[in-house]
Every structure is written in structure tokens, then in C-alpha cells.
DNA sequence: CTGAAAGCGCTAACAA
DNA sequence: TTGTTAGCGCTTTCAG
């Protein structure tokens, strides 16, 4: 009965009338512009309160062309998105940064290629000022979609193509992988296997490359491809064990896969790290600290990378269209990694 | 260089011009209204293609007052939101249903009370046509916020207050809990413990009530409160074990907590189910099938409940303001639960 | 069946 | 400092 959904919300006009000023002045007060006499401003603010006025975003956007909203698009079925703590952490960082800048995060889930059209429409529809793209595969069409939509974009992870003005944030996957393998080597291991991620993603390829940098002549049977899930890790481990029962160390391209590998190792009766040393990648604490034994891994600061992505995008969006100011042009960011030693290697 | 972000997107006006019709006609075609001669319609469509026209949502919303977007607000820190597969499944169902109706899902994360203001502004700003509220605690102010914003709302889980026109979707928590306890009883267990969820949420209270329905005189020391995390489950189990070493069965208010309890039970040297039978709630397959041993549990169809919430809300939003048609008034939904027997009880 | 015209609510020049 | 005046791009009566 006292439901407001039908009572149309008050407009700026109403506020102005009540405060006895013009719409322009009311607008100035609402938007915090300088140069409104304190007395008037106060009257307007009171009117706003009394009427419960809230600006109509559509109207505002129509003229300012800003939404104060950023889309996060994940090229991954929801199942994986939610199952993988990696995304959670990244989104967390993004969310914090956006919130701090009064921007809304709009999460767009894509279950498959069919959803790309919808996402394309959404981006082109001008709902958001920019987009953060995630988990791209090979020649994913998402970036082009965003580009065509005219929406500034920052990509999570190095994209598969080279292109001067593509912005992204990634960690030093290759260097991290090298550190991992060297650590294993330093432990005296000689039959070192690698469980790679899906090779249609650059992170996987880069980590594999790092592995090969250190072990260029490694037995090719000591490399198996997983899919960044625990199960994938377990299956890869099983295959590795089958092919090379003498394996004495494993570098998994993610903690999540490492946890699966650990499980499989136990099933097969191997002790970790005595028989087989295991090292992961990511340092997702909720995984790496809870495996048995706790996981030695290569740390990347995922949440911080999320924040960086958001910051980068926000700066791009706000870019004053190359006016005289010497704002350094936004550039891709590659963060360092760090070995975290626990019990598994 | 060929970047489009500066080339302003084509407007309906441009499309109309190119097709040699009026803006009105172009609009009709774009929105699929009846009654435009096929030939003209075709010309318009071609113009749309050639220009790559996409309607400006802000402009459209300004006049139609519809957004075709629904907010999902989770009253839970992101950490938990992402860590708990329960949310993932629910969001999945929602997302599917919304997508099927060409609605966008806008996920609003709230890290704490401070974010409520932001959410309130967002809802009141008219960004969305409705809101789905989740994981409400006690006298959460979110529903009132939404109400004040004039945004139709559906709540996930029975709210803590009674109110004729509050829409929600929940499962039969109390009945499910009764089934769980009876099952344990049927197994011959007599020292049955309960790990409750946070008691500021109705789901927890309802499950506890169900437990008590069957075991009204149970030793109060056999009840401990958890927090819906694995750790919380483990800690609660530890407390239980400490207080009543003779416990021979546990009903945990969620699978996630049950998994923690299982871990603690193993640590303490108990065999499951021989020494202690364990039953969970939810049937989150990725948890219940993977614990050791696999978890007997009370199943609720979480994804379907998500869909139902979305459907309910969409129907409410589209409600033709009580015209003559005899659309049944939307009402809360309570779904049944079902015992799924695995190895733990 | 089609077009002309009137706004939706707001911001941003431009005047005063 | 404040008000007046144009629109932003679209939908939707209302005539024709």
C-alpha cells in the first residue's frame, strides 16, 4: 500500500522547485560543483533529503556518457569461475578498487560462445565505461567485441597476440616457472615432470616455456596437459605416473591442479615430498596451506593484480584524450613472482 | 588509430536517414513492433547492419523506465561468497533464467555495512528493474533499502520477519533437518550432535528447530554453532568431541561444515561412519561426493531455487499493475528436500 | 502504415 | 553566483 514502486520518484525539477532555485543550481549542488552560495546549497540539500531524491542514472548517463560502472567479463563457464579461487581473489581486488572509486562492478558470466553476442550488445549498449576481460583462450573474440563496442579494455593475463595498445596485467609466468624448476633441481630431483594448464591460454604456455628454459632436454613424456581443475591435475598425474613411474618431482601449473596431483600421488602410494616433490603455482592460500602436505608454490599477488587491472582501466577511461598534460601513457603491467616454501618440495 | 572509442556510435537518427524512413519507423523495426511494411523493415535492418547500430540503453531506459537488468545483492563478504559453492550454484540458476529472458545479471558484492549505502544508491538510481537478495542476517536493512528504492525484490531464504507481501524462495529446512535426524536415529545412533549454522540466519534456525522437533530432550552440549565454513565445521566438531567424547552421530547444517567435521573426526581418530555417522545438508555435489567418505546429506535443488527466484522476480517486475487479468499473485515458494544416501551415514 | 513532435531527467554552455 | 536554454538518443502518442 505504502509501496513506492508506483509513486514515481522525485526529479531534480521537484527539488529545485522546493528549494526555490533553478534546476541548474540544484544540479550543481547534487554534483558537488563549486560556487554555489552556502545558503542556497543548504536549502537544496534539505529539499533532497525531504523528497528522498536520488538522481536518475539513465538521464545522467545520457548526457555525461559516463556510467561509473565497469564490466568484468569472464570467458569461462560459471562452474569454473566459481570453483576456482583464482577468480575469486582477482575479482576481490577489482571490486575493492572499483568501490574505492565509486564505480560499480558488473559481472558478466559467459557460458559459451552463444553468450558472446549478449555480452557484445551489453558492452555496445553503453552500460559500462570499460571492461575487464578474463581467462581468454587462444584467439578469443571477446577483445574484438569490446573494441568494436568502443569500450576501453584491460585484459587479465597476457593476450595471445602482440599489439602495442592492448593493455593487460599479468605476472611473470615464465620467470616463476623457472624458479620452480630450479628449486626442484636444487633439491636434487632429476626426473621432473610438468603438469601444464590448457595450452590455449598464454599463462599455461608461458609456464611451460619457463619449464623448458631450465630443462630443454627433458623427456617429453614428463609433460602432461591439465585443465586447471583438481581432477585435471589428478588425471595428468596418473598419466605421468603410468608413463614414468620413476618421476621424482612435479611442477604443476596451478595450486589447484597440484592438489589433485597430491591426491593421486597418495592413492598411488607415493610419499610427498620423500618420493615425489611437488610444487604448484599461484599460492592460493586456501588451497596451498590446506593440502597434505602444505604446498610449496610460486606466489603471485592475485588480488593486487586485480586492483592493478581496475586502476589501469579507470585511468584509461578517465584519460583526458591526450591533452597537454604529461600523464604517462598507460602500459601493460607484469608483476614479479616469488617462491613460497612449504612442505611439499 | 582505427580505434572506435572516439568515433561516436551511430544513432537511430542515422539509421533512419540511411534507410530513408523516420526515426519512429526505425525504432519500430528495431524493437520488433508489428505493422511495418516488410520492404521498409528490411531496409532498416540493413541500415542497422551496415552502421553497426546498437541502441543506446540510457536513452531507452530514460523513456521506457526499464533496464532489463536485475541486481543480485549478497549480504556476505566476497571471501565467503566465492568460497561457498552454495552461492555459485544459486547464481548459476539465476544467471540462466535471466539470460533466457534477455536480462542482465548485475552482481553487487557488499563487504560490510559501509557498502549498503552504495548499494542503496545503486538500486535507487534505477539501474535495475529488480533485486535478488541473499544471505540476509537477522534484521538486515537490505530489504528496507530495496523497498525504499522502490525496487521489486525477491529474497533467497525465508526472511526473519513475517510480512504478507515479502517474496522469497526457500527449501523446507525444518522438514529436511527432521529427515536427517530420523535417518541417524534409524541407524541406531543415540548420541546425536548438531553443528548449526550462524543463528542469525533463518536457515540455521530452521534446521536447528527441525533437529529439536525430533530430539526435544537432546543434551544441549550436543549442539554447537558453526559459520558455514569448513573451518567452522571443524572447530565445532572439536568442541563437540571435547564435551561429549561419546558422540556417535552428527548432523551438520551444511555440507561444507560437514566436510570440516569429517576432517576433525579423522584427526581425532574416529572412523566414519563406524564410530560417528555424519550427515550434511545441501548436497553440494562438488563437496559431498568428494569427501572421504562421501557424504550422506539432505538435498535441496539450489540451482533450481535460483531459477525460481529469478522467475518470481521477473513476473513481479512485469506485473501489469493489477489489471483485469487473473494472473495469480506471486507468492513465496518453499521447495521440498530429499535425503541422499552415500557412505557417511 | 508512417511521420511529426513531444518529452523522459539531467548536464553544460552561455548569458545575465 | 545563478538562471536560461539546448540538447543527449530514444519511444510513443497523435495526426495524416
UniProtKB/TrEMBL annotation, chains A, B:
Protein name (record): LacI family DNA-binding transcriptional regulator
Highest taxon, organism lineage: Bacteria
Family matches, as PANTHER family: HTH-TYPE TRANSCRIPTIONAL REGULATOR GALS, LACI-RELATED TRANSCRIPTIONAL REPRESSOR
Entry-linked InterPro entries: HTH_LacI, LacI/GalR-like_sensor, Lambda_DNA-bd_dom_sf, Peripla_BP_I, Rhodanese-like_dom
Keywords: DNA-binding, Transcription, Transcription regulation
Residue span, HTH lacI-type domain: 10-64
Occurrences of domain Rhodanese (ranges): 124-203
UniProt cross-references to PROSITE patterns, sorted A to Z: HTH_LACI_2, RHODANESE_3
Gene Ontology molecular function, alphabetical: DNA binding
Amino acid at each position: 500500500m505504502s509501496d513506492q514502486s508506483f509513486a514515481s520518484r522525485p526529479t531534480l525539477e521537484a527539488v529545485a522547485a522546493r528549494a526555490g532555485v533553478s534546476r541548474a543550481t540544484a544540479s550543481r549542488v547534487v554534483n558537488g560543483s563549486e560556487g554555489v552560495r552556502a545558503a542556497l546549497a543548504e536549502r537544496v540539500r534539505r529539499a533532497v533529503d525531504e523528497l528522498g531524491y536520488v538522481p536518475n542514472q539513465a538521464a545522467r548517463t545520457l548526457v555525461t556518457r559516463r556510467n561509473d560502472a565497469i564490466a568484468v567479463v569472464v570467458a569461462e563457464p560459471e562452474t569454473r569461475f566459481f570453483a576456482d579461487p583464482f577468480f575469486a581473489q582477482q575479482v576481490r581486488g577489482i571490486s575493492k578498487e572499483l568501490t574505492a572509486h565509486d564505480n560499480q562492478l558488473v559481472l558478466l558470466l559467459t557460458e559459451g560462445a552463444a553468450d558472446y553476442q549478449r555480452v557484445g550488445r551489453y558492452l555496445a549498449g553503453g552500460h559500462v565505461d570499460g571492461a575487464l576481460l578474463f581467462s581468454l583462450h587462444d584467439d578469443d573474440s571477446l577483445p574484438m567485441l569490446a573494441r568494436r563496442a568502443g569500450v576501453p579494455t584491460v585484459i587479465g593475463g597476457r593476450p595471445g597476440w602482440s599489439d602495442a595498445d592492448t593493455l593487460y596485467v599479468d605476472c611473470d609466468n615464465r620467470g616463476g616457472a623457472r624458479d620452480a624448476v630450479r628449486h626442484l633441481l636444487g633439491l636434487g630431483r632429476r626426473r621432473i615432470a610438468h603438469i601444464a594448464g590448457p595450452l590455449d591460454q598464454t599463462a599455461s604456455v608461458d609456464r611451460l616455456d619457463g619449464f623448458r628454459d631450465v630443462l630443454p632436454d627433458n623427456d617429453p613424456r614428463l609433460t602432461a596437459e591439465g585443465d586447471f581443475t583438481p581432477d585435471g591435475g589428478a588425471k595428468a598425474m596418473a598419466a605421468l605416473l603410468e608413463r614414468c613411474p620413476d618421476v621424482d618431482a612435479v611442477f604443476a601449473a596451478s595450486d589447484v591442479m597440484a592438489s589433485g596431483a597430491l591426491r593421486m600421488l597418495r592413492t598411488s602410494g607415493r610419499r610427498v615430498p620423500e618420493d615425489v616433490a611437488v610444487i604448484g603455482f599461484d599460492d592460493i592460500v586456501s588451497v596451498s596451506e590446506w593440502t597434505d602436505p602444505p604446498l610449496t608454490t610460486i606466489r603471485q599477488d592475485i588480488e593486487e593484480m586485480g586492483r592493478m587491472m581496475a586502476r589501469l582501466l579507470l585511468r584509461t577511461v578517465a584519460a583526458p584524450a591526450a591533452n597537454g598534460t604529461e600523464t604517462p601513457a598507460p602500459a601493460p603491467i607484469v608483476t614479479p613472482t616469488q617462491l613460497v616454501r612449504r612442505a611439499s618440495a
